[in-house]
Amino acid sequence: MKLLPFLRPLLEAAAAIALMVVGLRFITNFFASKSRVYRPTFLRQFALAFWPLLCLGVGLPFLASFFYLGAIPAYEQVLLAALTLLILGFSMPALVLHAQYYARNFHTTLVFDPKHNVLEVYEGRVRIPFGKSDLVRVEHVTCKSRRMFWSNYNYIKLHLRTGEVLTLTSLLTRLQPVAEFLRNTPLEHQQRWFCVA
């Protein structure tokens, strides 16, 4: 119990700092010019993971009741198990997709400017050379559901003549404009319930 008075000011300070950082990034994005270079930025990740993290943050304090499992009645244990399944069922699929997309596109940079007919992909600092004529097949995979926390996670796979496959995930940017830019290539639209790249 002596740890709680010490921990509360630290948590309040961390929450205030996080709120200031998010607020400053949000405000500076209004004054920044429209970029044509896309990377997995903090703000993009925060926008995608906001609802799953909020669900997890709201539900986690209730899950502390598992420490008192022997002291609570059976019907409350059933309700606690149902709440746990609900929280994890809504938040974990989105967070798993987020982690997978982050691992796949952590070093990826997309340069996309449809007005100047530019689509370039960099892995680290190395540009992957290809043109529209080098694309054998393009897969644009979106989620069937529009109401789940993981609905905004989608990806595009570019299959090159060299056999290389480049994966662009929604962690980089919204991919609908990229798919529209590639409409004159062999573009396949697919819908899945869970868009694992």
UniProtKB/TrEMBL annotation:
<keyword id="KW-1133">Transmembrane helix</keyword>
<feature type="transmembrane region" description="Helical">
    <location>
        <begin position="6"/>
        <end position="27"/>
    </location>
</feature>
<keyword id="KW-0812">Transmembrane</keyword>
<dbReference type="InterPro" id="IPR058916">
    <property type="entry name" value="PH_40"/>
</dbReference>
<protein>
    <recommendedName>
        <fullName>PH domain-containing protein</fullName>
    </recommendedName>
</protein>
<dbReference type="Pfam" id="PF26566">
    <property type="entry name" value="PH_40"/>
</dbReference>
<feature type="domain" description="PH">
    <location>
        <begin position="37"/>
        <end position="180"/>
    </location>
</feature>
<keyword id="KW-0472">Membrane</keyword>
<feature type="transmembrane region" description="Helical">
    <location>
        <begin position="48"/>
        <end position="72"/>
    </location>
</feature>
<feature type="transmembrane region" description="Helical">
    <location>
        <begin position="78"/>
        <end position="97"/>
    </location>
</feature>
